[in-house]
Amino acid sequence: MTLPRTRKWYEVRWYSDEDTKEDRKLIIRLDILIVPYAVLSYWVKYLDQANLNNAYVAGLKEDLGFYGNELVQLQTFYVVGSVLGNLPFIFLLTYVPMYYLLPGIDVAWGIFTLLQFRTTSFAELAAYRFLVGLFEAPFFAAMHYVFGSWYRGDEIARRGGIFYIGLPLGSLTAGLIQSAASSTLEDVHGLASWRWMYIICAAITIPIGLLGYLVLPGTPDLPNRKVLRQQDVELAISRLHRFGHVSHEKFKWRTAKKVLLTWHFWTILLMDTLFWNAAIHGNTTGSFLLWIKSLGRYSDSRVTELGTIAPAFGIFYTLVVCFASDLLIGPAWAITVATVWNIIGLVILVIWNVPESALWFAFSTVYAAVSLSSVLHGWINTQLRSSPAARSFTLVLVTSFTQSTTIWTPLLTFKTVEAPRFPKGFPFCLACAVLLLVVVHGLNSHLKRAE
Fold first, then answer.
1. What's the rounded Cα separation, in Å, for the pair 245 and 256?
2. 10 located within any domain
3. Which class for 104: exposed (0-12), middle (13-18), buried (19 or more C-beta within 10 A)?
4. Could you list the residue range(s) of the whole structural domain that residue 43 is in?
């Protein structure tokens, strides 16, 4: 059966016309259980991922004697851990209950976030960053797997959009925490303010991980009986089956072979690779923070405070793009809106010799690059709704491969010693963004013809 029709802009509603009263009660229950936990966990994930950039400009660089490309190298260690950590979950997503798996990795990365407060060398910090990346790795794909297990294709993007505001919110909060720490905690108990930031981040992360054991509903085939009744699970399965979703399937190697032999998989892989690399100018490189610090007129606390401007805009971009995808214009055009906004900012950054106000605008604008992520991965979920095994394999493998490209692309294009101009980095991101538009609309055209 086809998915519910796309409404006109004046017909916007939260539920579909096909949803019964019982369906709507179930949807509310799922929203309450899944979405708040998803937002909180993604918030602390990016809180713990973005804190390195803030620590770097708040004294870590000087305290540990970093004067070369250490920042981008440390980010690379994180990505290596993230890529390797993803791979086992090709199998685990269909075998291990999500209400054990997701909270477990959340607590683990919180522990290694905490340990970063005691670092005294590049090697030690690199090891911690690798381990944080290792445990954070599967969270994004696993969370989207959970969304695709309970929601229809026309319902995923707006839930994913609310979930995804955790990314800019985490980056924003990391900046505010570091700003406050720089102002009030410097040398308290003999610790630098950037060390206190890691302690604070871990104190937030670990309790949220533990909360997941109590609220996350798992998936229809491996549900959390503490929060869902059998009739809830049966209703969820039946409503998804009406729209072509399959709820029970374990990963087998023949699934991998079948997926890898389709052109569809390779198109998704290319699309996701371009997305990741069109957005590496943000958290991966710390370009905005490095530019603000290069102005030379702000204190460390003020630098990290001003660095929250772009993530704040990111929250707005994410909500607009994701809700528009589900309720108004569909995924391909929602991706287009976000990417065009990214392109506008990148063009200004490539030109560079513009008024300072234009650079403030550009750095805030390019944060739109990350807002399309939930739309893109929700779109993938929908295209693979007939096979949970194919969904888990594709989500994990695509994420692993595309993220692995960001191990080396920032090292080549965003060398820290070339900050803040990054003469290779911004043109590279611009090229990826333009190519992303071409691939997205090529895929969309094919899907329309197939329907």
1. 19
2. no
3. middle
4. 19-450
Other CB atoms within 10 Å distance of the CB of residue 68: 12
Strand partners, 218: 223
Between CA 302 and CA 339 the distance in angstroms is 30
Tell me the mean pLDDT in the region 88-99: 79
Query: Is 376:164 a contact under the CB 8 Å cutoff?
Result: no
Q: What is the mean pLDDT of the chain?
A: 82
pLDDT at 3: 47
Question: Which residues, at least 6 apart from 22, have a Cβ–Cβ distance to it below 8 Å?
Answer: 235
* Whether 71 contacts 416, CB under 8 Å: yes
What's the pLDDT at 90? 66
Using the predicted structure, report yes or no on whether residue 1 has a pLDDT greater than 50: no
Alpha carbon dihedral 317, 443, 87, 52, in 10-degree steps, equals: -30
Over pLDDT 70: what percentage of the chain? 90
CATH code assigned at 233: 1.20.1250.20
The pLDDT score that the predictor gives to residue 75 is 82
Q: Cα(247)–Cα(258) distance, rounded to whole angstroms?
A: 19
pLDDT tens per residue across span 156-197: 767 777 777 776 777 777 777 877 887 888 889 888 988 998
Q: Is the pLDDT of residue 9 over 70?
A: no
CA distance 230 to 246: 18
**pLDDT above 50 (res 114):** yes
Helix (H/G/I), strand (E/B), else coil: 188: strand
Q: Sign of dihedral through CA atoms 365, 154, 434, 397?
A: positive
Residue 375 resides in a domain: yes
Angle at 269 between CA 266 and CA 274, to 5 degrees: 130
Single out the residue of 337, 375, 8, 316 nearest to residue 158, CA to CA. Answer: 375
Instruction: For residues 183 and 115, give the distance between their C-alpha atoms in angstroms, rounded to a whole number.
Output: 22
In a domain? residue 7: no
Does 220 sit behind a cis peptide bond, omega within 30 degrees of 0 on the bond before it? no
DSSP 158-180: HHHHHHHTHHHHHHHHHHHHHHH
pLDDT of the residue at 246 = 56
Dihedral angle computed from the Cα positions of residues 331, 223, 163 and 371, in that order, rounded to the nearest 10 degrees: -30
Q: What is the pTM assigned to this prediction?
A: 0.70
In angstroms and rounded to an integer, the radius of gyration of the C-alpha atoms of the chain is 21
- The total number of structural domains that make up the chain: 1
Per residue in 222-242, pLDDT (tens digit) is 899 888 889 988 888 888 777
6 in a structural domain:
no
> What's the rounded mean pLDDT across residues 415-419?
84
